[in-house]
């Protein structure tokens, strides 16, 4: 049996050790949970809309989708936005994703759903194929990537970029 002084010293040493260990402890990482259905829906839109051509194009498509989810003008979930009639490529929710673009689409979808955005998309909620000529006076283009031209709808007098911009790649990670 230990006498009182060594026992007290042992307890103080343990308390000090535990206290110091707490000072060097790293904070627990924040874990963001993303529903697998959201990843699947987002990846499908990216895969079929960006021609599986580039990460920038996929991240831009995902950024537009998230802008729509956050807008009162569109449904409140990723899958509801992607499933909207006549908004995305025919068969976007039913066709198979079966080439190397699938892995890039899934990784890009996860990145967007955990917060990554294409910095040039800004508030854009629309895009069309880069080769398409839209004859409207309210389209303000912000980016062309992955075979698509991304744009905002503005009052005609506020449009400063009425034509699709040159293709840009290599901006996103």
From TrEMBL:
<protein>
    <submittedName>
        <fullName>Spore germination cell wall hydrolase CwlJ-like protein</fullName>
    </submittedName>
</protein>
<dbReference type="Pfam" id="PF07486">
    <property type="entry name" value="Hydrolase_2"/>
</dbReference>
<keyword id="KW-0378">Hydrolase</keyword>
<dbReference type="InterPro" id="IPR011105">
    <property type="entry name" value="Cell_wall_hydrolase_SleB"/>
</dbReference>
<dbReference type="InterPro" id="IPR042047">
    <property type="entry name" value="SleB_dom1"/>
</dbReference>
<feature type="signal peptide">
    <location>
        <begin position="1"/>
        <end position="21"/>
    </location>
</feature>
<keyword id="KW-0732">Signal</keyword>
<dbReference type="GO" id="GO:0016787">
    <property type="term" value="F:hydrolase activity"/>
</dbReference>
<feature type="region of interest" description="Disordered">
    <location>
        <begin position="154"/>
        <end position="173"/>
    </location>
</feature>
<feature type="domain" description="Cell wall hydrolase SleB">
    <location>
        <begin position="54"/>
        <end position="151"/>
    </location>
</feature>
